[in-house]
Q: What sequence folds into this?
């Protein structure tokens, strides 16, 4: 009868601009049950599995592709946790986890989305176009809180320059 | 979990909470307000959240507070959109619009108040608010009347919270809850009210896990000389745990269908469910 060795590791790191990312990995290996009689070898297998898990976590958390500028719903697989509450507001769908990116980054608040639309309307901008060009997502509800905040500052700065506020 | 079924459907006021029956837990969420309603009077909770009886009479104080909130909310939306702070007339128009949402005939005024007197009070309060530094947050506004929802306590429905204001500053984020009050709050009063913000903090922690979270009440008094004061709430793990345990126990009581009236000289006169309460036979 085979012996199943299951090793799991998870880690979460904070990010600037109100975000965080987490990754977890679970590895399962079938071994010959006779290995229980060789504790040293079994321990080596466990250490090796943890080493692999650690490498995977490090690679995931430090890979540029996993940073918060990844497009929404980019298919992170199950390596990324979602652990924050959903916001049932105008820019979410009211369902659990409806306002989080798959990589754990909170999405723009309803107030930010409303502000972006108001600013764009005032300035005669094609907001969706600006967002697509700058962030690679289709509309303001897909921005993160940090991105929305950054864009509001940028657009308001443009207003200030143009309008002398 | 089962929804309470009512024995008689002829009139909403003839429906009775069925003591000992499976609990009316059709709700998939709770709010801090619903919990405090139960703590104030379990039968009021039953009429409001289980039976969903219409509130034929609403206190002027409630309508007033809601309309002030609307004006304050509008102010912050304008700031976030990069506009100049709205002038007083604009804020008063928002206040009026908020007031007009409530049918006039359903508003119950205390002896000393009328619509006019409350509009004058709103004028003074919004003037004081506009002139206060509290109207001009130092950081970046992230959320205004932002609704958050999440599971906080095992076996209790999700908590839904509406954050009046969420602002990011260099040192973290601040959750601000605006209150209108008959008199200035003492620190002790703020401490008594802290549970609401402690629960909200738990939701925001899940949303922004790597950021320190500051909690504050901003209290505007409904007095001749309006005052605005800021009361910081210091997070405390033991208090947060206690608050969650209270919520869990309150929910357990709701879940088990424990509904009974709590007569109170302070609460009953303004209760919108006085009639169904009188008809309730236990």
A:
């Amino acid at each position: 009868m085979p012996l199943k060795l299951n090793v799991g590791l998870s880690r979460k790191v904070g990010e600037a601009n109100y975000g965080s990312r987490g990754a977890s990995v679970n590895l399962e290996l079938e071994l010959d049950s006779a290995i229980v009689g060789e504790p040293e070898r079994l321990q080596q297998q466990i250490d090796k599995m943890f080493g692999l898990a650690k490498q995977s976590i490090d690679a995931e958390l430090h890979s540029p592709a996993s940073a918060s500028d990844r497009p929404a719903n980019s298919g992170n697989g199950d390596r990324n946790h979602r652990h924050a509450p959903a916001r049932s507001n105008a820019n979410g769908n009211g369902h659990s986890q409806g306002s989080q990116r798959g990589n754990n980054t909170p999405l723009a608040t309803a107030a930010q989305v409303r502000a972006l639309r108001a600013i764009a309307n005032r300035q005669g901008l094609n907001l969706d176009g600006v967002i697509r060009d700058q962030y690679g997502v289709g509309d303001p509800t897909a921005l993160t809180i940090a991105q929305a905040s950054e864009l509001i500052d940028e657009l308001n700065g443009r207003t200030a320059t143009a309008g002398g506020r | 979990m089962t929804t309470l079924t009512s024995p008689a459907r002829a009139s909403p006021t003839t429906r009775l909470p069925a003591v000992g029956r499976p609990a009316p837990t059709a709700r998939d969420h709770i709010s801090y307000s619903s919990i405090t309603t139960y703590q104030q009077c379990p039968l009021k909770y039953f009429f409001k959240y289980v039976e969903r009886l219409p509130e034929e009479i609403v206190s002027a104080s409630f309508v007033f507070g809601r309309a002030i909130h609307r004006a304050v909310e509008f102010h912050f939306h304008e700031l976030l959109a990069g506009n100049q702070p709205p002038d007083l007339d604009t804020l008063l128009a928002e206040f009026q619009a908020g007031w007009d949402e409530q049918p006039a005939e359903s508003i119950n005024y205390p002896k000393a108040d009328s619509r006019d007197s409350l509009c004058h009070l709103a004028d003074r309060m919004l003037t004081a608010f506009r002139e206060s530094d509290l109207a001009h947050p130092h950081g970046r506004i992230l959320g205004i009347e932002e609704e958050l929802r999440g599971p906080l306590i095992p076996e209790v429905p999700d908590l839904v919270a509406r954050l009046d204001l969420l602002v990011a500053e260099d040192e973290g984020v601040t959750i601000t809850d605006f209150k209108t009050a008959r008199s200035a709050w003492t620190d002790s009063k703020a401490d008594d009210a802290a549970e609401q913000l402690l629960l909200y903090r738990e939701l925001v922690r899940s949303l922004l896990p790597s950021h320190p979270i500051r909690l504050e009440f901003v209290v505007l008094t409904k007095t001749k000389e309006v005052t605005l004061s800021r009361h910081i709430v210091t997070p405390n793990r033991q208090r947060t745990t206690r608050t969650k345990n209270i919520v869990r126990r309150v929910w357990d009581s709701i879940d088990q269908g424990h509904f009974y009236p709590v007569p109170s000289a302070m609460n009953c006169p303004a209760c919108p469910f006085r009639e169904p309460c009188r008809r309730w036979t236990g």
